[in-house]
Write a structure and sequence with these properties.
Blueprint (H helix, E strand, L loop, with lengths): L2 H26 L3 H10 L5 H8 L6 E2 L23 E8 L2 E8 L10 H17 L3 E5 L10 H17 L5 E5 L2 E3 L4 H5 L2 E5 L4 E3 L3 H8 L5 H5 L1 H8 L4 E3 L2 H13 L38 H8 L6 E3 L7 E8 L2 E8 L10 H16 L4 E7 L6 H5 L2 H14 L4 E10 H6 L9 E4 L4 E3 L3 H8 L1 H6 L3 H16 L3 H5 L5 E2 L5 H11 L18
Helix pairs in contact: 1-3, 4-5, 12-14, 16-18
Bound molecules: hexanoyl-coenzyme A (HXC).
Length: 525
């Protein structure tokens, strides 16, 4: 196309985009709950609608709206669409600067061309230079097939920048349509991935290739839908029922995070008030074999309704998520006695380790609530690498320099005691409730091993076992022997937990730790 007519077309297009943005802004912004209700009825929003919905009203500044692809093969020179399938720019979310890109499925299936990638890279560079979060709204058929290796290179440019930005600015991904092939690796390298149920999927190879290679029959939804990744693979940290709840989730998530790794998260104003929480005394059952829901403990300790759970449906034997405590943003890692008695296994170790590392990178203090009977035994666990995966969590806590506080509510057994933010691996304040049992293992198992001969030769072995079990329990099934050695700083009443934690995190606010200079550690990946 001659340059002059291209210029005229571009000017017309610029005016059109401005008009479109204004119309959409009127249609989608303002109106609070009513607007949300309206949106709920719509299944999929367009790329532009998504951007305008998530950003503060009138704050969006588009970058690169006039970019066009450079492909001439396959008749592509006739197919010029301004913006080239991705809306990019910046704006604010709750007044805080945020960079954003949204792939437009209506343009070549949102596929990624060389120029589409350049647009994304441009705002990634800006986000990193300025130090503000970046959000990617993914909805794409993958590499632009007509461009061959140029689009593959574009992906690799994005992957590289994902890694350069990791740990410096928060990177959030929403999957709001297809995300296939190598395209999945950019979201996978960002900090959090949210998937929209029933309208998004992620896989490296789709159902057709799977059928050819392994003869398995599987639908896209089964192979890589939101539910699959939220429960089986852990690729999705959060799922959303539709586009609007997905965008609301992204906003909520950002509210707990700082803009970059040099900031601490925003501390909401808070005045100390009545902080005693009597209900905490009634949650842990007297019988050590009975389970309880650790969510109930979390809810009593934190500021009302402030828990935002991550990976809710994956490895449910451990709970991780953000909350506020006395207005301060914190990360919580908590064993969940309700599922598998709260044991640590391969998936829960990986889940918690990644969360701990995120919090540490972004100056978010860590609270650990501990009730753990140990690591899960069995061939499945050993063969799937419980050693190397359990070590991930041990490593992640050991390297974390943010304020770290632990409360042992009941069991703290074996290696899991060490791993779950013990004093020995650098925790700052360790509390235990009077119901805590800090020992190498449960009293029965311990008695069976160390008094084996005595029990065997006794007149009544069952009675002897019980006697020895009680003896061991009296000595170790409590927090006092750990407290005597200083491994526990204080045995506290459950009802005082909230105030003790508010004070501890406040005391630790200016914590600084110098680490030896090195390129990087070698976390057991
Ligand atoms: C160019 C594409 C495209 C692509 C879709 N389109 N994917 N154009 N490159 N990768 C176009 C279609 O031609 C069509 O154009 C329009 O987008 C909508 O696509 P449909 O197929 O009609 O939509 P739908 O039925 O909803 O199916 C969506 C889809 C399917 C499942 C995503 O389009 C699809 O399978 N696309 C190819 C996916 C793929 O194999 N991508 C490469 C993966 S490998 P018209 O003009 O008809 O509207 C990869 C490598 C990355 O990404 C490696 C990085 C390291």
């Amino acid at each position: 196309m001659p340059f002059a007519s291209l210029r005229i077309k571009a000017h017309k297009m610029e005016a059109k985009i401005k008009d479109l943005n204004e119309k959409l802004a009127l249609a989608y912004l303002g109106g609070g709950q009513e607007r949300i209700d309206k949106q709920h009825q719509k299944k999929k929003l367009t790329a532009r609608e998504r951007v305008l919905y998530i950003l503060d009203e009138g704050s969006f500044e588009e970058i690169g709206a006039l970019v066009i692809h450079r492909t001439t093969e396959f008749g592509m020179e006739e197919e010029i669409i301004y913006g080239d399938g991705v809306v990019t720019g910046y704006g604010t979310i709750n007044g805080r600067l945020t960079y954003i890109f949204a792939q437009d499925f209506t343009v070549f299936g949102g596929s990624l061309s060389e120029t589409h990638a350049e647009k994304i890279c441009k705002i990634m560079d800006l986000a990193l230079k300025v130090g503000a979060p970046i959000i990617g709204l993914n909805d794409s058929g993958g590499a632009r097939i007509q461009e061959g290796v140029r689009s593959l290179g574009g992906y690799a440019d994005i992957f590289y920048k994902n890694v350069q930005s990791s740990g410096i600015i928060p990177q959030l991904s929403a999957i709001m349509g297809p995300c296939a092939g190598g395209a999945v690796y950019s979201p996978a390298m960002t900090d959090f991935t949210i998937m929209v149920e029933n309208s998004s999927y992620m896989f490296v190879t789709g159902p057709n290739v799977v059928k050819t290679v392994t003869n398995e029959e599987v639908t896209s939804e089964e192979l890589g839908g939101a539910n699959t990744h939220a429960t089986k693979s852990g690729v999705a940290h959060i799922t959303a029922t539709n586009d609007v709840t997905c965008l609301e989730d992204l906003k909520k998530l950002l509210s707990y995070l700082p803009q970059n790794n040099k900031e601490i998260p925003k501390h909401l104003p808070y005045q100390l008030q009545e902080e005693v929480r009597e209900n905490l005394s009634n949650i842990v059952p007297g019988n050590a074999n009975k389970s309880y829901d650790m969510h109930a403990v979390i809810a009593e300790i934190i500021d009302a309704n402030s828990f935002y759970e991550i990976h809710k449906d994956f490895a449910e034997n451990i709970i991780v998520g953000f909350a506020r405590l006395g207005g301060r943003s914190i990360g919580i890692v908590a064993n969940q006695p309700l599922i598998l008695a709260g044991v640590l296994d391969v998936n829960s170790s990986k889940k918690a380790a990644r969360f701990v590392r995120f919090c540490d990178a972004f100056n978010i203090p860590l609270l650990v609530l501990e009730d753990v009977p140990g690591f899960l035994p069995g061939t499945d666990q050993e063969w799937n690498g419980i050693i190397v995966n359990g070590a991930k969590l041990l490593y992640a806590f050991s390297e974390a320099t943010v304020p770290r506080v632990t409360v042992i509510t009941r069991k703290a057994y074996g290696g899991a005691y060490d791993v779950m933010n013990s004093k020995h691996i650098g925790a700052d304040m360790n509390f235990a409730w009077p119901s805590a049992e800090i020992a190498v293992m449960g009293a029965k198992g311990a008695a069976e091993i160390i008094f084996k001969r005595e029990i065997k030769s006794a007149e009544n072995p069952d009675e002897k076992l019980k006697e020895k079990e009680n003896e061991y329990a009296a000595l170790f099934a409590n927090p006092y022997s750990a407290a005597q050695r200083g491994f526990i700083d204080e045995v506290i009443l459950p009802k005082d937990t909230r105030i003790k934690l508010i004070k501890a995190f406040s005391m630790l606010e200016n914590k600084e730790v110098e680490r030896p200079n090195r390129k990087h550690g070698n976390i057991p990946l």
